[in-house]
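Appendix B: complex inputs.
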Amino acid sequence: MNVLTSKDFLAGLVCVLLGGLVLVVSSDYNFGTPRRMGPGFFPITLGALLVLLGCAILLTAIRIGERLPALNLRPWLVIPAAVLAFALMLPRFGFAPAGIAVVILAGMADRGAKVMTLALLAAVLVPAVWALFALVLGVPLPFVTWS
Amino acid sequence: MDLLESLQLGLATALTLENLFYCLLGVSVGMIVGVLPGIGHLAAVSLLMPLTFHVPATAALVMLAGIYYGAQYGGSIASILLNLPGTASSAVICLDGYPMAQKGRAGSALMITTIASFFGSCFAILVLILMAPPLAQLALSFHSADYFSMMVLGLVAAGSISQGRPLLGLASVVLGLLIGLVGIDVNSGVMRMTFGVPELFDGISIIVIAMALFGVSEVISSIGKTGDSARSINVSFRSLLPTRKEWSQSGWPILRGSGVGTAIGILPGTGGGSMASFMAYAVEKRVSSKPESFGKGAVPGIAAPEGANNAAAQSSFIPTLTLGIPGDAIMALMLGALMIHGIAPGPRVVTDNPELFWGLIVSFLIGNLILLILNIPLIKVWVKILQIPYRLLFPAIILLICAGVYSLDRSAVDVLMVAGFSAVGYLLIKLGFEAAPLLLGFILGPMLEENLRRSMLLSRGDFMVFLERPVSATFLILSALLLLWVIWGSLKPRQRPVVNV
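Resulting structure:
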C-alpha cells in the first residue's frame, strides 16, 4: 500500500507541521540564555523536540505502514456540530432551546435515531440538568431568553 | 502530629455530613460508570469536575476519588455477567469471570471480586497511611532540579509505557506540554500562542481538555460500537455464597494481587489500574499449580486482578499527594482539582492541609466500606443500569458536558473550544496519539518550565546541576534507560504486545 497514506506517516506529518508552527510562532518570543530563560526558551525547545519526534515517526512509517483505521464518520461530524450549536445558541436563546438542540442533534449521531424519542429524552433531560446547575449549584443560567 | 492524631483529624473531617454525602455520591457515580461500558471513569471524573467548583476542596477531592475507586468495583460486574469490560482495568476479569458465570457461579464470582476489591483497597490505603508522611517529609528536601527530573521521568514513563506506539505516546506528551504553555507567561508577561484571542490569555482550562478528549471523543468513538445489549441477565442469587473451596482458592491470590497492585500503582505511567490487573493475572498464572485451569473459570484468575486494580487505584495517590507528581491521567485530573481550589500540589499538602490529606484518606476507607455494603445487595439495580441503551445515554452525556463547561466561567468560547478540541482530538487519537499522556503533559507543563527555570537560575546556567544532585541524576538516568529501551523496542522487528485479551 501507499506509505504516504499510512497511519504513522500522517501522524509524523502532523507532529512535524505542529512543531514547525510552534517554532514559527515562538520565534517572536525572546529565547534568553540558559541562566535567564526567556519566554521563548521552553516553547522553542519543545517545538524542536516535536519536529524531531515527528521525523522519527515518519521513518518508522516506512517500515510499519499500517493503514489508517476507519473513522466513525457520522458521529465525528454530528457530535462536535451539536456542541457548536449549543455554544452558539445558549447566549442568545437561553438554556432550554440550546439544550434541546444539543440533545436532538447529538442523538442523530446514532444511525437508528428517531426524532420523537430524542425529543422526549430532551424534555426529561433539559429541565433536570438546568435544575441541577441553576437551582442546586446556583449558576446564573437563564432557562429561556431572547437577545 | 503523630499518626493517631492525624487519623483522628481525618476521621473528624471525613465524618462530617457534607463529606459523607459527597463520598456516597462519588462512589455511587463511580459504581454506575464502572458498570456501564462506553463511559469510563476518566469521562465521569471530567464530567463531574465542574460541580466541584461549588464545594470545598476536601469534599471535591473526596467525591472525585470516590468515582475513581468506585468504578474499579463496578467494572467487574459487566465483565463477569456479559463478558464486556466496564472499564479497561477489568478487561482481564472477563477471562475467568465470564466462564464462571457460564458455569452458574456468577453470584459467587461477584462476591469474590467484591471482597478482593475491598481487601486490595484496604491494603493499599494502609501502605498509603504508612508511606505518605515520611515520603512527603523526604520530598521537602528536594530541590527544583530534583522536581524537574522527577517530572521528566513521569512524562517519559507516561508516554512510553502506553498501549500504542511509544514514539506517538511521547509526541502526545510534548503536544500536551505545548498546550499547557498557551496563555500569559508569568515570568515575562508575554502572551504565548494565544493568537490574539482574549479568552486564551489565562490559558486553556484543564476541564475543557479533559471533557473534549475523554468525554466527547470517547462518545464519538463509542457510538455504534457498544451495541445495545438489552439482553436479560439472570444471576442465580442462590449461588451468591462462594463454596469453602472457592474461599480457600481466593485467599492468597487476593493478598498477592494487592501487593502487586499497590507496587504498580505507585510507579509513574502505569495508569488506570489495567497494568496492575494484567500483571497480577500473569503472576497468579505463574505461581499456580494448575495454570491450565486459567481462562476456564479459575477463582484466582478473578481474585488477584480485582485486588490488584483496586490496590493500584488507591496507591496511585501516594506520589500524587506527597510529591505532586501524578502517575496517570486520572491523577492529573485530581491535581487539576486541587489547583482549581488554590492548593499548590506538592509535599506541603500533607503538612499545610492536614484536614484535606487525612480526611481524604479516611474517606477512602469509608467509601470502600460503602461499596462493600452496596455492591451485592444492589446487584439487581446494577444489572438494570447495564441495560440502559447507549443511544439514550450519550445525548445526556453530551448535554452534561456542554452545561458543565459553560458553568465554569459562563463562557460560550469554552464550549466552542470543546467542540474544536474533540473533533481534532478524535482524529489525533485515530492517528495513534494518546489522550492520557497528553493530559499529563498539559498539567505538568507549567510546573516543568518553572522548575527548569528555577534550577537554571540557581546553577547559573549550568546544565550539569541535573546530574550533580543524586536524586535528580537517579531520575534522569531512569528516564534515559526507559527511552533507550523504548527506542530499542521500536527498532526491533515488531511483535504484538502480550496484553491482548
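The longest strand of chain B covers residues 183-184.
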